[in-house]
Specification:
Blueprint: H1 3-10, E1 19-20, E2 23-26, E3 29-32, E4 37-41, E5 57-62, H2 66-80, H3 92-107, H4 110-121, H5 125-153, E6 156-159, E7 162-170, E8 173-177, H6 185-196, E9 200-204, H7 217-223, E10 229-231, H8 236-245, E11 251-255, H9 258-267, E12 275-279, E13 284-288, H10 294-306, E14 316-322, H11 326-338, H12 359-372, E15 376-377, E16 383-384, E17 390-391, E18 393-396, H13 403-406, E19 413-419, H14 423-431, E20 434-435, E21 437-441, H15 445-455, E22 461-464, E23 480-481, E24 484-485, H16 492-496, E25 498-506, H17 510-519
Parallel strand pairs: 1-5, 8-9, 8-11, 9-10, 11-12, 13-14, 13-21, 14-19, 18-19, 21-22
Antiparallel strand pairs: 2-3, 4-5, 6-7, 7-25, 12-24, 15-18, 16-17, 20-23
């Protein structure tokens, strides 16, 4: 699709009314900001006579300063109060009630949030609504898992001369930094379990996907006690760095890049006391074996590498194909890619514009580097469409000396590597800095058995004849090496944001323990069973 054609399509859709959002949430109040503001533009817009894209203006959000960031941290610290605050000592029922209040308000914001997901980060219509709905489901499922966790903790055990009760308690103040590609779902996969476990939060949205969180600000304010959740807008260097330097952050919860997380952790004066819950970059490989169903492999590899334009940590970012089938695979794969439609998100097109600044130039740089070192662009429609739109490029043959072989492209460029000896891709994956997932394509049970046994100690999820993916949310989501720290899922996230705590007494104290429990004055020492 040409730039002019894309612009013509985009002009058919009226952008939402611009939002001037000046508020931030600290200590239970929505404060007004009168300082610097950041203008927010959509990656969509008409093309000018000079050939420049005129991106739709969506509004503006605060660019808060260091002082406000530290004020938010102080509010979270006060609310936690060294574990003695109202929220960390609240009963499970009180925390559940607050989260249910938030959820009921959130459900009324579906249209606003989903529309902004489309316009702000160019997520296609069905994916935008799906992200919202999946997040609602995630909160409901996490509430149920939290209840089950509390039920298990209600048991009092006795082993020999020791009576004990084991529960999970909060860790402290959490700095939460979400990603732009799933600014609602993945952010809430950090925030929701963290706050349910009794932690207090300072949350800064990603650079892209800021306005779509503003419809939920009032819900956060109404549902949770002052200081439990504090939301600030602005630049990471201005806000996150100074917050970490104080040493008052107990947990860094971040989905993003390992360089960013390393830089933040390095600023903490006592990193040994800092719990890290990190979802980081990946270079997930696909291996297409000689005995694979090629049509199935092509379908899954196209979806896996180019869903949301490849802007997913779980995307397939390097595809190894056996030399005996590579010609057929590339022909079918390239044709399938060229059939994809690049259009406005509201059309539910498979491909949409790219929200990140200079992303088109970055993708072109990968292509240019690979071509200079011997690769060719195998599909017909590849390349720049406009300043914010890039039609996927299929590169082959890709070799180790090319940047695209090692670096996470996080966009619509698909590198294909030919192999003959299976040890070559196996060794490449073992030597990689990343270890999140891989996909194996074969119809032969012996092939799959061998490959699985070799991959399970390299990555944390092995997918058989299907693309890499995060869900369903009950499965653990993590990675090895530079791809993750800690584990996220409905089950695991509650544990990642808490610590096991024991109350114990000798058997000669059973009458006292019984009186404390039956008296109902302790929120911790209770055998109440949550329904």
């Amino acid at each position: 699709m040409s730039a002019a054609h894309l612009a013509q399509k985009i002009q058919q859709f009226e952008s939402p009314t611009p939002i001037t959002w000046k508020q931030y949430l600290v200590d239970g109040y929505l404060h007004e900001w009168e300082g610097e503001m950041e203008k927010v533009f959509s990656p969509m817009g008409p093309i000018s006579a000079e050939g420049k894209i005129q991106r739709h203006y969506l509004g503006e959000a605060p660019t808060l300063n260091e002082e406000v960031g530290l004020t938010a941290l102080a509010a979270a610290k006060k609310a936690y109060n060294n574990g003695r605050g109202l929220w960390p000592t609240a009963s499970a029922s009180e925390r559940i009630s607050a989260m249910e209040t938030f959820l009921e308000i959130m459900k009324t914001k579906r249209e606003e949030v989903s529309t902004l997901l489309m316009w702000e980060i160019a997520k296609n219509k069905s994916s935008a609504y799906k992200e919202f709905d999946r997040t609602v489901d995630y909160i409901e499922d996490t509430l149920e898992e939290y209840k089950e966790l509390q039920r298990r903790g209600s048991k009092v055990g006795r082993n020999g001369a020791v009576i004990s009760q084991v529960r999970r308690g909060p860790l402290g103040v959490v700095l939460c930094l979400g990603p732009y590609n799933y600014p609602l779902n993945e952010t809430f996969c950090l925030l929701i379990p963290s706050v349910l476990m009794g932690n207090t939060i300072v949350f800064k949205p990603a650079k892209y996907g800021v306005l779509l969180l503003t419809p939920l600000m009032e819900a956060f304010q109404k549902a949770f006690p002052p200081g439990v959740i504090n939301i600030v807008f602005g630049r990471g260097r201005t806000l996150a760095g100074p917050i970490m330097k104080t040493g008052d952050v107990d947990v860094l919860a971040l989905i993003g890049n390992s360089k960013s997380s390393n830089a933040l952790v390095a600023q903490h004066p006592k990193p040994n006391r800092l719990r890290q819950v990190l979802g980081l970059e990946a270079k997930n490989p696909g291996i297409v074996f000689e005995d694979a169903n090629i049509d199935l492999a092509v379908k899954q590899c196209v979806n896996g590498s180019l869903s949301y334009n490849g802007q997913r940590c779980t995307a397939l970012k390097l595809i190894f194909v056996h030399k005996n089938i590579i010609s057929e695979f590339i022909e079918k794969f390239s044709k399938a890619v060229d059939k994809l439609v690049l259009n406005h998100p509201a059309t539910d097109a498979e491909l949409t514009p790219l929200p990140e600044k200079n992303k088109v130039e970055q993708m072109q740089a990968y292509v240019d580097d690979a071509k200079a070192k011997g690769a060719k662009v195998m599909n017909s429609n590849a390349g720049r469409v406009s300043e914010t739109a890039f039609f996927p490029a299929v590169l082959y043959p890709v070799t180790r000396d090319m940047r695209i072989y090692h670096e996470e492209q996080f966009g619509p460029v698909v590198p294909i590597v030919e192999y003959e000896d299976l040890e070559d891709p196996m060794n490449s994956i073992a030597q990689s800095d990343y270890g999140q997932q891989c996909s194996l394509f074969s119809d032969n049970d012996a092939t799959i058995a061998y490959a699985v046994d070799n991959m399970v100690n390299q990555v944390c999820r092995v997918n058989i004849n299907v693309a890499c993916q995060r869900g369903p949310d009950y499965l653990p989501f993590t990675g090895r090496k530079d791809s993750a720290v800690a584990t996220l899922s409905v089950h695991d996230a509650l544990r990642s944001f808490s610590i096991r705590t024991v109350v114990a007494a000798g058997s000669d104290q059973k009458e006292l323990v019984g009186r404390v429990i039956s008296g109902g004055e302790s929120k911790w020492m209770t055998t109440d069973y949550l329904l």
